[in-house]
Write a structure and sequence with these properties.
Elements lengths: L3 E6 L5 H12 L2 E3 L1 H11 L3 H9 L8 H4 L8 H23 L2 E4 L3 H4 L6 E6 L2 H11 L8 H23 L11 E4 L5 H9 L5
Parallel strand pairs: 1-3, 1-4, 2-3, 4-5
Helix pairs in contact: 1-9, 2-5, 7-8
């Protein structure tokens, strides 16, 4: 069976960088934006629209995994959202079955649960997240710390709602992960060798 690592992460925690560096250290395939591009190809929807769906407030209050048991009235927006999620699940499963890999976000830990991935969640305190966002921001960005804090909190709330909507689980709950990494005041590239050792055998 292939080795599969999934990365859940708070915005600004460096989870994407950790996933990319870990995949490079291990020689594993790395999937992140590639998933969105593949969904766009298969559905003829734009990548921007697909990203917007992932950030949209769920349309119903119940988790989708229990909603399949009864009839839902026709709702084109809901059906489009479900179409994208189902295609995403198919693509993620295909990628995981193809080779050893690292997959960032998009409920991959839940979608691939039968394949028993190693599930990592990356988090950090707000000041570290603001610092990372500043380092990666365009030179002309003029957000104040307060505005940036609100943006980070807003994105994390949307990620939590998206994850909970499709999985029925609490986003970031340590019981749903095999390793939780606090990147507060951490240089990510320096901790990669230690994490990589978990998968070298």
């Amino acid at each position: 069976m292939n080795k599969i690592i999934t990365i859940g992460r708070e915005f600004g925690s460096g989870g994407r960088e950790l996933g990319r560096r870990l995949s490079e250290a291990l020689g594993f395939a790395y999937y992140d934006q590639e998933i969105v591009s593949e969904i766009a190809k298969r559905t003829s929807l734009s990548e921007q629209y697909i990203e917007a769906i992932a950030e949209r407030h769920p349309l119903f209050s119940f988790p989708i995994h229990i909603g399949r048991s009864f009839y839902l009235s026709a709702n084109p927006v809901f059906e489009q959202t479900m179409k994208v999620y189902q295609e995403q699940a198919r693509i993620i499963t295909e990628m995981a079955e193809k080779s050893d890999c690292v997959i960032v976000g998009r409920c991959a830990d839940y979608i691939l649960k039968e394949l028993k991935p190693f599930r990592i969640f990356v988090y950090a305190d707000m000041e570290s997240k603001i610092k990372r966002c500043r380092e990666k921001a365009p030179a002309d960005e003029q957000l104040t710390d307060r505005e940036l804090r609100q943006q980070i909190s807003g994105i994390d709330k949307k990620r939590a709602k998206y994850y909970e909507f499709y999985t029925g689980h609490s986003w970031g709950d340590k019981l749903n992960f095999d390793l939780c990494i606090n990147t507060t005041q951490t240089v990510i590239k320096e901790i990669i060798p230690a994490i990589a050792k978990l998968f070298l055998s």
